[in-house]
Amino acid sequence: MVDLKGQYEKIQKEVDEAVINVIRSTAFINGPEVKSFASELENYLGVKNVIPCANGTDALQIAMMALDLQPGDEVITACFTYVATAEVIALLKLKPVLVDVNPDTFDIDIDQLKSAITSKTKAIVPVHLFGQCANMEAIIEIAKEHNLYVIEDTAQAIGADYTFSNGTKKKAGTIGTIGCTSFFPSKNLGCFGDGGAIFCEDDELAKKIRMVANHGQSVQYVHNTVGVNSRLDSIQAAILRIKLRHLDTYNEARLVAANYYSSELAGINELQTPVISDKSTHVFHQYTLKCKGIDRDALRTFLTEREIPCMIYYPIPLHHQEAYKQENASDKDFAVTLDLCKNVISLPIHTEMTRESQDIIINGIKEFFKK
Asked: Final residue of a domain: which of 216, 245, 274?
């Protein structure tokens, strides 16, 4: 689904030198590379504070801890997403409140979001799924009306731009109260292991986030709050500094590949190619088709038998997962999510794609529909 080896080979000299320099310096934890990466990412995103951490899941957890959310508080998020989004809510003894998504852009349904708000609601976690932003203008308006925090899960959309109705543009993850991302190797900006970061405009809140991520201490051995141990190591930061310089080029390559898929598959009525929001650019962390009136699993089997990679994101909705089943939740409340779980299929998309490799995938799909 991704070609990390091909991507590495293009920047091998820079990466190898950066890694060796960290090893020679022996500044493995919170060294100069971590501080430099945080500063450079702040400049790229246009945000005052970037706090690196160990992974994207930690980023979400630390954000919620820093906001002093209490057990029993309700946090609303999308039902159609990776489990980590709901996982951290439940881990902190908060109550995940799942709502359905839009059938075309797959982002959180604004009407259902409004209906899910109660006196116990404290935060909204919009997921910028597959590479484009949720409807942040509407979400921010709702949050202001009800005095709610907004924690953006931008693990799949770093580099995407959101445009407000007044023409103002902001990067994904910099719009809400806090933004969270992952640097898992397959992400658009990925390291060579685990990594994550938290974005925040408010300096006082950023100070609290830094404390939570560092055992709850502001100075060594003085613990002001309950915290965790979550750090981005210097080697990963050094690699991310190099890859950040290429991020816009990487995202452009993904867009070119996505546009070629969409143009070549446009004539197949049984497939819906990705719908791009008019408010957000799309950085195509995934290229996801929606099957219409055909057996998605038969298509997956057909492609797999011909050694054409494909994946299902995500096959089981969160409200069907044993750990996240909700009292009184009904499938009719998640009709779109259920439809997507049964009908979406993602094709390989990455920075090193060639027309030749895409043509193999496209011809395989076309062959399926000639049966």
From this structure: 245
